[in-house]
Amino acid sequence: MAPDANTWLDLTSMEVEYLPEMWRHPPKEALAAGHGGGDYFEIMDFVTSIVEGVSCPIGIHEAMDMTLPGLISQESIRAGGAWLDVPDSRTW
User: Fold this and answer.
1) Which residue blocks in the chain are alpha helix, DSSP H?
2) Are 30 and 37 in contact (CB under 8 A)?
3) Burial degree of 30 (CB within 10 A; 0-12, 13-18, 19+)
4) What is the dihedral of CA 92, 72, 86, 42, to 10 degrees?
5) What is the rounded average pLDDT of the residues 2-19?
6) Which residues have CB under 8 Å from 14's CB, separation 6+?
7) How far apart are CA 25 and CA 42, in angstroms?
8) Region 22-34: what's the mean pLDDT?
9) What pLDDT is recorded for position 34?
10) Of the candidates 55, 69, 76, 92, which lies 20 to 30 Å from 86 by C-alpha distance?
């Protein structure tokens, strides 16, 4: 039976299925780089895309989808908590 959508689910139960091996067992260089390896993997993806001529795993629009809400939230705070729409970079 699937858990109720409103019930807390321990995300560690999904690690093997969804979290890549490199994130589950990062090299010491990744851990030393900060943010649990996030900085390391982000730079490595960028370098790999240049050296090997492949696309980054996260495209510009996906990166903007993750960045813009945080930036807009800061503007909302400055505006006393006003509701502000988050722009869609795909329409620029």
Assistant:
1) 15-18, 21-24, 28-33, 38-52, 60-78
2) yes
3) buried
4) 70
5) 85
6) none
7) 16
8) 91
9) 85
10) 55
What residue type is 22 in one-letter code? Answer: M
Q: What is the pLDDT of residues 56-75, one digit of tens each?
A: 888 899 999 999 999 999 99
Confidence of residue 9 (pLDDT cuts 50, 70, 90): confident
Give the residue carrying structure tokens 């895309």.
Answer: 49
SS3 sequence, 8-23?
CCCHHHHHHHHCCHHH
How far is residue 1's CA from residue 63's CA, in Å, rounded to a whole number? 35
**For residues 21-49, average pLDDT:** 91
Q: Which two tokens stand for residue 43?
A: 């730079």
Give the span between the Cα atoms of 39 and 33, in whole angstroms. Answer: 6
